[in-house]
Amino acid sequence: MAAERRPRPASFWFLALFFCAFVLFLYGPMFAIFVLSFQGPEGGLTFPLRGVSLHWFRQLWEGIGTVDIGAAFRRSLALGAVVMVLTVALSLAAGLAYRKRLPGGTALFYVVVASLIMPSIVVSLGIGLMFRLLDGALHGWLEAHAPSLAEGFVSTLGLFSSGLGAQLTWTLPFGLLIMFAVFNRFNPAYEEAARDLGATPRQSLQHVVLPLIGPSLVGIGMFGFTLSWDEIARSSQAMGDLNTLPLELQGLTTTVTTPVIYALGTVTTVVSFVVVGTTLAVVWAWRRRGGGA
């Protein structure tokens, strides 16, 4: 005889309603932008939808005024890739260093994590000011010692100098915290077994540690890329003359009054989902390969 199904308490329905409201608040605006980006040529920035077409994506492809969206897109991709690689490499190195007695490690940890607490715009202003001071000092030195080079000198502010540093202040603390969590759960018996079998420290790292923590490193890489991909506040004063895609998008919100800006938002969101999907596929394949070994 089947057991009688008991009615759910009122608290269950309250929490379920709260969760649905949270999901709607989280994804509702993004879904609205996604739908409005497919407006017809006569469509505006709000509902109702006036036709369905790819008109605004075609407008985006052809360019928005003087803004070169394609170049900004490529700059963001390139910067995100560099940030991703450096975040993985430096987070791994820091995680390995903290597994042993690291002189000054506690103070260094607080210094790194403090970057998450400080307002992003303040960090950006500080980095921009520091590089402008460096520009002044370097230009003065060049005028005194190499006048021919001083004429061609413009600025040290740039995508892969100050911009890269600004974004690493955002991604590295997250990468370090993830590595702490990974190594706290890592069983050192695997390394001890490798050493008992005659493996050197390098062989133990290469053939034991890295394969085991590989999926986590892929996750850190995804974290680094996605954080860089949509970063605005820390990049706002540190990018120099060439803006990334989020900064161009922020600028367009005050000048563009057509759904083409929604089309741009849809494209950038799709790129983020592609990165997340690719990461999950790589992690799945990695674990499947490890399980079959």
List keywords for this structure.
11 helices, 293 residues, flat, MetI-like fold, mainly alpha
Quick recap:
By secondary structure, the chain is mainly alpha-helical.
Describe the structure.
It is a single chain. By secondary structure, this protein is mainly alpha-helical. The chain has a single domain, classed as MetI-like fold (Orthogonal Bundle), CATH 1.10.3720. The protein is built from 11 helices and no strands. Helix 1 packs across helix 11 and helix 3 (about 70-100) crosses helix 7. It is flat and about 75 Å long. The chain starts with 9 loop residues before the first helix and ends with a helix. About 25% of the residues are buried. The model has no long low-confidence stretch (mean pLDDT about 85).
SSE blueprint and pairings:
Blueprint: H1 10-36, H2 55-62, H3 69-98, H4 105-117, H5 120-145, H6 147-152, H7 162-184, H8 189-196, H9 201-229, H10 245-252, H11 260-292
Helix pairs in contact: 1-11, 2-11, 3-7, 3-9, 4-7, 5-7, 7-9, 8-9, 9-11
Terminal Cα span: 47 Å
Just name the CATH architecture. Orthogonal Bundle
The H/E string reads HHHHHHHHHHH
Largest sheet, strands/sense/barrel: none
CATH topology: MetI-like fold
List segments where confidence is low: pLDDT < 50 over at least 5 consecutive residues.
none
Rg estimate, integer Å? 25 Å
The CATH class is: Mainly Alpha
Q: What's the number of domains?
A: 1
